[in-house]
Amino acid sequence: MMNNALLGHKANPYHHLSKNGQWLRITWVLKVFFAHYRHAPLQAGAILLGIALAVTLLIGVKATNDNAIRSYSEATELLSQRADVLLTSPVGQDNLDESVYFSLRQAGISQSLAVVSGRVAGQNGQYWQIEGSDIVAALTATLTSKNTSPSSNSKATANSAVSMGDLPLAALMSGEPVVVMSDSLASKIAPNGQLSLAQSIAPSTLKVIRVDDSWGLGSAILTDISLAQNLLGMQGKLSYIALFSDRDKLAALKQRLDTLGITPDLANYSQQDQGQALMALTRSFHLNLNAMSMLAFVVGLFIAYNGVRYSLMKRQRLLIQLLQQGLKRLDVMLALLAELLFLVILGSVIGFILGLQLSHWLQPMVAMTLEQLYGAHLLPGIWQWHWLAQAIALTLVAALAACLPLYFDLTRQSLAQGANRYQQTKAHNQTHQRQFILACGLLVLAAILFPFSQSYNTSLILLGIVTVAIPLLLPQVLHWGVSLLLPFTRPGLKHYLLAETRELIAPLSLAMMAILLALSANVAMNTLVGSFEQTLRSWLETRLHADLYLRPSANRMADVRDKLSQDPRVSGLYQQWQVDAEISIQGPTPQTIPVNLISRDDESIKYTSTLKDSLPDLWQRYFGGQFVLVSEPMAIKYQLMLGDKVTLNVLDKTTNNQVVIAGIYYDHGNTRNELIISHQLWQQAQLPLLPISLAASFYPLGQANKSSSSVLTQPIPTNGKRSEAELDELQMQLATELELAQAQIYSQANIKAQAIAMFKRTFSITLVLNSLTLLVAAIGLFSACLMLTQARQAPLARLYSLGVSRSKLRTMVFSQMLLVVVITCLIAMPTGALLGYLLIDKITLQAFGWTIPMIWDWFAYTKAILIALVTCTLAVLLPLYWQTRRPLIASLQQETL
């Protein structure tokens, strides 16, 4: 030990440095700190581990979200620039006549692009998105954009490598079975260079040309317009026409179209919003991801702060000795801050690199979710240096806020006092009491704000308040829990075990707070996902009433319907119609909203619409007047109520285009605006007669309809479900008889399986982030237990010298850690349930419009608790075994280090 009596001039090696500047003294202190870390690398490793894990998840989600938002704002037509105007099919028609495009080109409007879009069935039952366009026009528009306004379109620059010479234009324009797709997509669905389609589609095999992902094709399959029309059965038809123009010339463009006679009867004029609508639609999804990443960031900071506190605890004697040698308190404080800055920068750089790799793994999951829910396509990911700067700044601010009070306490302590265990324990108890009072205040505030949280933005703030309050409760609750057990133990080793456990709460509190936060979030997310899955299954049972669902191409629809209506095996045939429409809502802020307008036969509407709320005598009113059913997501988003009147633009051919909202129905999994009108009202509005899909129920095998009448509409059958084998046999028979691909016919079981699979893929990224957060907390628990076990080498050696066997020591230490973890897990159950309630009844309902009953998933909770217990076991037993094998003298010497 250093002799503190020698405090004269010669005992102060730093005295001669006072004239050379403060920075030199700080450098000498830093050298001492780094020498300390060479002998105790675990301490620096724990700090770096927490910071790196926190930044990894933060950067991983930020890079994924930023790339998605960039994709919305830079989305363009394939191989071309962003469209400023779209000409789409007129109201009541499925497609646009290609003569409109010819008229534009003949009139000299060369900045236009014809597009045919649709899905084709593959042999394996999957559907692929086909995009057919005038490829020469697309590339010409891009070149024109770059020559006239290089900075007007960022995607034009990204596509600078795309040129006509890079594509097999001769083969494409001659209508040969050639398609173009991104390299990443081709490696998944066409690794052999060929894409096989359903047998009823000609040609059934397409040659695949692979291009670099930087072309921005995403998951779309590009081909020439002539081949796309053939594959989709859209000869002479277009999906839409994209027009490119300067934003200040759109009025002149509209006037020129009117002059050419391109009126709403021929094409619907739609000005684009530069991706703003898609950004607004997906905002809640990205908010949820950000919330998960911030939760993981906070858990990581808990680990880092725990490492900092442990390191300072082990260096407390060293800091006292430095101050006793004459160093100024300010110099030691600045050295501690410089050390923290270095660790934050190093940890952030490591986390930044790992975060970019994490984003690379998360990107496909996010792309799949956004495509399934919102129809959005993501561009190839990029990364920015300023993300690293933001991560360093955020981490440094958080670290300073957490560590500064600790630094001040250490540098202000009395040099004569040294390390006073009683004073430290008293300070910890006071801190825990203040944290408990603060947590109670936050929970009371959340309860007061609860009735006023009517949007998901405010509900997320409410969720954040509760999330902060939960870990603050833990240390005091742990202290009370252990104290309640003390009177039930006899004097001796067991009483000592509990008494010491109470003293261990302070050094373990941060790790336990992190594991509590992660476990609560895990319980909440598993409750949400499990409840949603059960709700979705129940909803599908009601929604899917027929045995088979058919979706033939438009040119085969009438023929298939007629054949099924005369098939003696069919007990009921049901149809669904759909068009794009708009409704106008009157009020303080009138607005026009695009919607999917749907109609079904009366029986399907009545028996498959799961109603949330409705007017009295709904069906008598609905089928005989101007009434409409509104999906729950749309009703919540636009605050539509029963009895509200809205104007529906496609009803302009009826006596009144105003409709009354008669019911609100559950529509789980759908985020789009949707309305249902009766088929009688559909016919009055002279909307398309051909349905977009058919559904059929069948008599049991061996029975048939003895009547010769049509079965276009029959009551929903109640004779039970067909077996899966019967449905498979029927599916194969109908595919042959109706000349349809089996991929165009779905059974109930297949639809349910695909819906559940899509649901699992949609929530996969949330579950991954949730699991990563729990993993981060588990690593933090391991780190804290390892450091604490190392710090207790001397007390354990003293017990061993008093006659306590090594096996009893291991059992005692393990029991102590296990007791603290079990209490933490027990607290995580109600707190997780509270977070789950807020996620289900507030966030999900307000953000997506889905009402979900809360269902407990005990298996998922048990798995999360087992992870915590196994982590605790490994964290305690391994270092404890190593250290109890050390010589007694070596362990006792730790007392003086």
From TrEMBL:
<feature type="transmembrane region" description="Helical">
    <location>
        <begin position="332"/>
        <end position="356"/>
    </location>
</feature>
<feature type="domain" description="ABC3 transporter permease C-terminal">
    <location>
        <begin position="291"/>
        <end position="412"/>
    </location>
</feature>
<comment type="similarity">
    <text>Belongs to the ABC-4 integral membrane protein family. LolC/E subfamily.</text>
</comment>
<feature type="transmembrane region" description="Helical">
    <location>
        <begin position="436"/>
        <end position="454"/>
    </location>
</feature>
<feature type="transmembrane region" description="Helical">
    <location>
        <begin position="817"/>
        <end position="840"/>
    </location>
</feature>
<feature type="transmembrane region" description="Helical">
    <location>
        <begin position="291"/>
        <end position="312"/>
    </location>
</feature>
<keyword id="KW-0812">Transmembrane</keyword>
<feature type="domain" description="ABC3 transporter permease C-terminal">
    <location>
        <begin position="770"/>
        <end position="881"/>
    </location>
</feature>
<dbReference type="Pfam" id="PF02687">
    <property type="entry name" value="FtsX"/>
</dbReference>
<dbReference type="GO" id="GO:0044874">
    <property type="term" value="P:lipoprotein localization to outer membrane"/>
</dbReference>
<dbReference type="InterPro" id="IPR051447">
    <property type="entry name" value="Lipoprotein-release_system"/>
</dbReference>
<feature type="transmembrane region" description="Helical">
    <location>
        <begin position="860"/>
        <end position="882"/>
    </location>
</feature>
<dbReference type="GO" id="GO:0098797">
    <property type="term" value="C:plasma membrane protein complex"/>
</dbReference>
<keyword id="KW-1133">Transmembrane helix</keyword>
<keyword id="KW-0472">Membrane</keyword>
<dbReference type="InterPro" id="IPR003838">
    <property type="entry name" value="ABC3_permease_C"/>
</dbReference>
<protein>
    <submittedName>
        <fullName>ABC-type export system permease component AttFG</fullName>
    </submittedName>
</protein>
<feature type="transmembrane region" description="Helical">
    <location>
        <begin position="387"/>
        <end position="408"/>
    </location>
</feature>
<keyword id="KW-1003">Cell membrane</keyword>
<feature type="transmembrane region" description="Helical">
    <location>
        <begin position="460"/>
        <end position="483"/>
    </location>
</feature>
<feature type="transmembrane region" description="Helical">
    <location>
        <begin position="767"/>
        <end position="788"/>
    </location>
</feature>
<feature type="transmembrane region" description="Helical">
    <location>
        <begin position="504"/>
        <end position="525"/>
    </location>
</feature>
